[in-house]
Amino acid sequence: MASELSVDQWQTILGNSNITKPLDISIFQALYSFEEHCAPAGEVGRLLGYDGRNTSSPLNFEVAHFAKRIAKQFDVKFSQRDDGNYQYWDFFFHGWAEGKFFVWQLKDTLVQALETLHLVNDMQFAEELPNANILHEGLRKTITVNSYERNPQARKICIQHWGTNCQVCDFDFAKAYGDIGQGFIHVHHLVPIAEIAATYEINPITDLRPVCPNCHAMLHVKNPPLTIEALKSIMTS
User: Fold this and answer.
1) Who's near 21: CB < 8 A, 6+ residues apart?
2) Does the N-terminal peptide bond of residue 224 adopt cis geometry, omega within 30 degrees of 0?
3) CA 178 → CA 119, 172, 174, 184, distances in Å?
């Protein structure tokens, strides 16, 4: 049994849609976007749109199921806690506690596989973070993002009008993941966020669109970002 996978094995897993789901890729992409590919698990959860007191819980849930899907097709070994329960996260990440936070870091072989398959790039997902400055005492780094005001009401109105299906690929998180996917979606600014002036008033219906994290990443591959119509055309060509 293996407790570590090779780059080639990770590539096989990441390319198998029966094992690797869109949320799994989104978790890896979000973590990859941080310096040294590491961040508190809760920050990754917030980056992916989860809120509440424990934003890492849905990720732990998905990581465990992802690991179990891998185990059905690969002879792998998971580490165990003192109570005998399996510790699935450290199959994918290095991890350590820093104060009240628990930090995940992508393992090197997984990073190499993601890069080889062109599933990640150097873009940052800063605009998905809810606060302009995140200062967590005890962490090794300070994460600073653009200080543009985010109006949760604008997001709510956008979703009420457009729904929670991705406007590019029509992916529905609730249909795919049940209750944990209910209401989950990124909101994309049709006007690039860096170009929005301080006095700019967002129209949630005309200026925002719901998109899944994968399509959101692809929209921002280009600068200026691709239009939703252009990305749809790429996907159907």
Assistant:
1) 62, 66, 176, 177
2) yes
3) 25, 10, 5, 11
Instruction: State how far the alpha carbon of 32 is from the alpha carbons of 116, 131, 151, 155, 219, in Å.
Output: 14, 20, 27, 25, 17
Pairing verdict, β 101-106 and 93-98? antiparallel
Q: Tell me, what amino acid is at 166?
A: C
Contact in structure between 104 and 43 (CB atoms under 8 Å)? no
Provide the whole-model pTM. Answer: 0.55
**How many Cβ atoms from other residues are within 10 Å of residue 26's Cβ?**
25
Beta strands in 88-132 (DSSP E): 93-98, 101-106
Here the tokens at position 152 are 């949760």
Quick: pLDDT tens for 20-76: 998 899 899 888 877 788 888 888 887 777 877 788 899 999 999 999 999 998 888
Q: Which amino acid is at 84?
A: G
φ, ψ for residue 73 (rounded to 5)?
-120, -10
* Burial grade of 41 (CB within 10 A; 0-12, 13-18, 19 or more): buried
Helix, strand, or coil (residue 106): strand
Question: CB count, 10 Å around CB of 116?
Answer: 13
Q: Which token pair is 189?
A: 């600014």
Secondary structure (3-state) at 18:
coil
- CA-based Rg of the chain, rounded to a whole angstrom? 18
Cβ-contact 198, 148 below 8 angstroms: no
